[in-house]
Design a protein that fits this description.
about 150 residues, 6 helices, membrane, Sulf_transp_TsuA/YedE, transmembrane helix
Length: about 150
């Protein structure tokens, strides 16, 4: 069983205003999610029913941007906003990845939300999504509590 844990070795800013940059990026990310209709339950249902290319196009674009970003980070040795080196570690594929992916997909299809857009959905006034958010937090806690006894 191989686990990889990355730790932040620098001392984080304890001042509240040092965290504003993350809040601004999060708000901008949420606005993009809303404008691109990524948080739309109807768009998500279209995707799972294979009725529209919209979400597949967005996901494919995100994968392409991610691949390009990793390549650029490695090629130019780009550092984090705090000046730390960015490191990538090899991950071992296990049957637990399949189980987790299936469970994640079912949750996404049933609720119409994956973890990223949850906050944007709540921000647009869909407060019922708080139930999904609390469920995601509970699921993360359960995994952390029982991860050593789960198939990896």
């Amino acid at each position: 069983m191989q686990h990889s844990i990355q730790e932040n070795t620098t001392t984080p800013s304890t001042k509240w205003y040092g965290q504003i940059k993350y809040m601004v990026v999060g708000i901008l990310f949420g606005i993009v999610f809303v404008k691109a209709e990524i948080i739309s339950w109807f768009r998500i249902q279209e995707m799972f029913r294979l009725q529209s290319f919209h979400m597949y196009g967005i996901i494919g674009s995100a994968i392409a941007v991610g691949m390009l970003s990793v390549w650029l980070i490695k090629k130019f040795n780009i550092k984090t906003i705090d000046g730390e080196p960015v490191t990538f570690s090899k991950k071992q594929f296990t049957k637990g990845n399949i189980y987790g992916g299936v469970l994640f997909g079912f949750g996404w299809a049933i609720t119409g939300a994956c973890p990223g857009p949850l906050f944007a959905q709540i921000g647009t006034g869909a407060t019922v999504i708080i139930v999904t958010l609390l469920s995601a937090i509970a699921g993360t806690w359960v995994y952390g509590r029982f991860k050593d006894s789960l198939p990896h």
